[in-house]
Predict the 3D structure of the following.
Amino acid sequence: MNKTPKGNRPHITFLGKRNVGKSSLINVLINQELSIVSDVPGTTTDPVEKATELNPFGPVVFVDTAGYDDIGLLGEKRVKKTMTALTESDLAIIVITEELTNDDKKIIDLVISKNIGYLLVINKSDIMDEETIKKVQNNIRQSYNVAVLLCSTINHNNIEELKESIITILRSNPSELPIISDLLKPMDTVVLVIPIDKEAPKGRLILPQVQTIRECLDADVSCIVVKERELHYTLNHILKTKPKIVITDSQAFLKVNADVADDVLMTSFSILYARQKGDLITYTKGISAIKKLKNNDSILIAELCSHRPISEDIGRVKIPRWLEQYSGLSLNFDVFSGKEIPEDLTKYKLIIQCGGCMANRSLIISRINKAIDQNVPITNYGLIIAYLHGIIERALTPFPEALEYLKS
């Protein structure tokens, strides 16, 4: 993999009213023309993402957004897209000019309420007199305890300082957690079980598999990759010692569980991602909602990638079928793909979230928090599959805190 996936890059979102120079700031920071700039308010419509290197930090995604003071029917839709982009943000750069407006205060308060790190930038300082600058700085200090940068994309005033401030915040709040390396030590052996079926892309492995292999290699761990049919032979005839852990695709849980000795740890890629991208304890808590389901209850299946569904699609077909078979109920399933889910989740008795390999952690956490705020249980593909197949305790054994919560 030559490029770090967007889901593993911190997302830096530029927010501000129309025509405050958000696009110009990004263009100067990355030394490229990511966004079209003009003096006409509202030039940027949908959010524009740019995956790039922020030296000396590393890979990031800059996100340019429409002004949050946009008007009209189209303007409302643009603002909604901006708010969606905010759910992915690891850092918000809020850009203002000659005054701090109520719209600015609302967005700052929203960013603070979502616990997103932020910087305030007064842009276009090259055309502002000292009195105006002091006035807006004082207005900010009266409401917020935050450093303010005076910037200009014309004379590049404080552009390097802005870059350094961004890097400082990103380094103090790492957005990426380990997939598996913290469970291992050098010279351990890990076996990965990867079915090759209709969903497997020809000639390639899917992202969770590739990233897990790479993390094992970085941790100086031996990594053996097999299909489910070769697992029993590998464990009993090829390996001289037992592996530390076996990680499987969730759909092969039952066969893998039967082939792996009880004293060997076992879990799934999806559960590893539930921990890395989301909140494993909250997902474990969500499992208890299955026992409370009633006939005709509604379930939300939340996917983040927009793959082409197949006849035995895991989210659209298999999980609904297994859940109805397990519960003996007739249930209603709504499937949402992509970054947006309904604002009102209260009609749902359970949300089942995919592993989220294509998204960053901020987006998954914002989705989890939305469910919590509306008192809707949420869990993850891997956990619900393990539960429905009767092996949830074993699948959570590598994670003592989650296992203890499940048992309690």
Observations:
- DSSP finds 15 helices and 14 strands in the chain.
- The longest strand covers residues 48-54.
- The chain has a mean pLDDT of 90.
- The radius of gyration is 24 Å.
